[in-house]
Structures are given as structure tokens and as C-alpha cells.
Amino acid sequence: MSDAGAKPSPPLAAKGEKDTAEKRGRGRPRKKPEDPSEAPTPKRPRGRPKGSKNKASSKGRKSSVTPGMKPRGRPKKPQQDEEEVNISQESSEEEQ
User: What GO biological process term is on the record, naming one (predicted)?
Assistant: First the structure.
């Protein structure tokens, strides 16, 4: 194996001088500030708005279920009056 094809490494002193002349900071380079010709646009909020939760949405929410489509989310409990529940319990106790 001959050293003719390999590049000779530069002397250490020359390498050290180059580093001091060209000093680089670590990490991402800073963005150069540009002079804005226009007024900056205001930032828009991200995420869900903080308004009232009880308002109807502006798009008009449908409360009825369209036939042929399954309802989404947790199914609602069937509303029963407390009197009906109490009456059914009392009648079952009387039978025993």
C-alpha cells in the first residue's frame, strides 16, 4: 500500500490558525433581521376558542339523528320518572 494516493494532512499549526480566524458559534445560525416595509400581521390564536361552552355553534348543529346514520358518542339514557321506578319497586315487594 503506497502513500502516493493519500493526501498529506496539513500541519497542525495551520489548522489552528484557520479556526481562530473563522470562529463559528454552535447550533442553528441566527436569522438576519429584515426591515419590515409593512405593518406586521397580528398573530391568530391556535386551538379551541375560550368562549362559552353552552352556545350553539355558528354552523347550526342538528339535534335530530338522520335516518340511516348511527348516532355518535355515548348513548343517552332513557328518561324515566322517579315515580314510575318507585311504583315498580313497591309492586314487586308486595308480590313477595
Answer: regulation of DNA-templated transcription
Instruction: Give CA–CA dist 15/3, Å, rounded.
Output: 22
Q: Which three cell numbers stand for residue 92?
A: 314487586
Residue partners of 71: CB distance under 8 A and separation at least 6: 65
* Chain centroid offset of residue 91 CA: 55
Give the C-alpha separation, 51 to 38, whole Å: 32
Report pTM: 0.16
CA 79/CA 85 separation, integer angstroms: 11
The model's pLDDT over 46-63, given as tens digits with 9 standing for 90+, comes to 888 777 666 666 655 555
CA-CA distance, 75 to 78, in Å (whole number)?
Answer: 9
